[in-house]
Amino acid sequence: MSHIARILPETIDMRQEALSLAKNKLDSLPAGTNPLTAATTTRLNATVTDFLAKVQAVATAAFAYNGNTVLKESTQATCLMFTSHFIQVFNLGVKRGVYTAAQRDFFNLPIGSDALPDMVKASDLLMWCTRLVDGDALRITAGGAAMSNPTTAQLDTTLTAFTNAFNAQSNFKDALDLAQEALEGILDEADKVIKKVWDELETFYNEESDESRRDNCREWGVVYVTVGSEKAMSGTVTYNGAPGAGLVVKFKTGKNKSTVSGTGGYSLNTTLMGTQAVLVLKYNEDNVEVKRWEFEVTLNENGDKTQNFVVND
Fold first, then answer.
1. Nearest 5 degrees, angle CA 106-CA 125-CA 113?
2. Which of 134, 218, 221, 236 could make an SS bond with 18 (beta carbons 3.0 to 4.6 A apart)?
3. Does 21 share its domain with 168?
4. Residues 176 and 61 sit within 8 Å (Cβ to Cβ)
5. What is the CATH number of the domain that holds 275?
6. Domains of the chain: total
7. pTM of the entire structure?
8. How far apart are CA 304 and CA 285, in angstroms?
9. pLDDT single digits (tens) 82-102
């Protein structure tokens, strides 16, 4: 049997919406008609100001971090190309007798191998490129022939650009982490304030019919949903024409989430019913949300649901 239940917010967006709606309603009231106690009114005003400021701080820090990501990735790609070419050209020179295999020691490369080192990770690339730049100066001082195409100076230029972008990205990530931690630090107080406001509203309107009480409370942002028996929603997520492995699927209302498998599958359990919002989320390697898509689905009281999603950049 389905029933109507009050659902407290569980995400940053839902908390912001709840606080903002309550604040907007409070500010619009004629004098002397506030259903909240003086203490709760003061607490609501203070929490809204603090919460919105910290949300904006996260948005500002995320903008700086994401804005530098393109520069970091492009300089990394250029540095990788020059570093790989430098090693390959040097190895070809060894085969031609321009350089000696022993000179690989200056780069910390194995003397008997011309294989490229693993430079997929940014930290590994920085290490190897630095070894090449520093080591080549020592190699030339020791009498080795100068490199060309690329030269050491060209390699050093790409290293400097990548190092600057890499360090900036690290600092932007630290700033984003601090902003997120500050926001997370007030979630408990925000939850208590929201519950306090909603409890006082439902008490204030408790002599009205259930529907009238809920309608009045909804004007303040109180959320009511119809829930039924437990059911599953499952399906596939296609991202840019391929399985959306690593994307996350969740109901906008509720805690449950599912990480999309390598074959594109997901599965969510819920007691929600009726029209519900579903989010498909994309996170980067630092677990920062970089993209979201929102869909509407309709859930029956009983019975599982198959729902596929297609998303594109």
1. 45
2. 221
3. yes
4. yes
5. 2.60.40.1120
6. 2
7. 0.76
8. 33
9. 999 999 999 999 999 999 999
